[in-house]
């Protein structure tokens, strides 16, 4: 795989931003953003697509932890 040119990187990032904006506006309903998803996958290398989607999941999780806080799961009680 050759490194994408500056113009290719810019097109990829713009496609990613449009997809993420669509997902944010539609409460993460992928079916509503299929056109943006297809464009994103066409303009970005497959490794980048995988990375950016994992990155989005992480950022959403991080935001949730910052706003809602962390609640540990109920587990077995340890004797004191």
Automatic annotation (TrEMBL):
<keyword id="KW-1015">Disulfide bond</keyword>
<dbReference type="GO" id="GO:0008535">
    <property type="term" value="P:respiratory chain complex IV assembly"/>
</dbReference>
<dbReference type="InterPro" id="IPR048280">
    <property type="entry name" value="COX6B-like"/>
</dbReference>
<protein>
    <submittedName>
        <fullName>Cytochrome c oxidase assembly factor 6</fullName>
    </submittedName>
</protein>
<dbReference type="GO" id="GO:0005739">
    <property type="term" value="C:mitochondrion"/>
</dbReference>
<dbReference type="InterPro" id="IPR042289">
    <property type="entry name" value="COA6"/>
</dbReference>
<dbReference type="GO" id="GO:0007507">
    <property type="term" value="P:heart development"/>
</dbReference>
<dbReference type="InterPro" id="IPR036549">
    <property type="entry name" value="CX6/COA6-like_sf"/>
</dbReference>
<dbReference type="Pfam" id="PF02297">
    <property type="entry name" value="COX6B"/>
</dbReference>
<keyword id="KW-0496">Mitochondrion</keyword>
<dbReference type="GO" id="GO:0042775">
    <property type="term" value="P:mitochondrial ATP synthesis coupled electron transport"/>
</dbReference>
């Amino acid at each position: 795989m050759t490194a994408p040119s500056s113009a290719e990187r810019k097109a990829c990032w713009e496609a990613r931003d449009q997809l993420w904006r669509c997902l944010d506006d539609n409460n993460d309903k992928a079916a509503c953003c299929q056109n943006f998803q297809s464009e994103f996958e066409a303009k970005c290398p497959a490794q980048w697509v995988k990375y950016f989607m994992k990155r989005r999941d992480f950022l959403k999780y991080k935001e949730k932890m910052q706003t809602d806080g962390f609640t540990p799961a109920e587990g077995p009680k340890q004797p004191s």
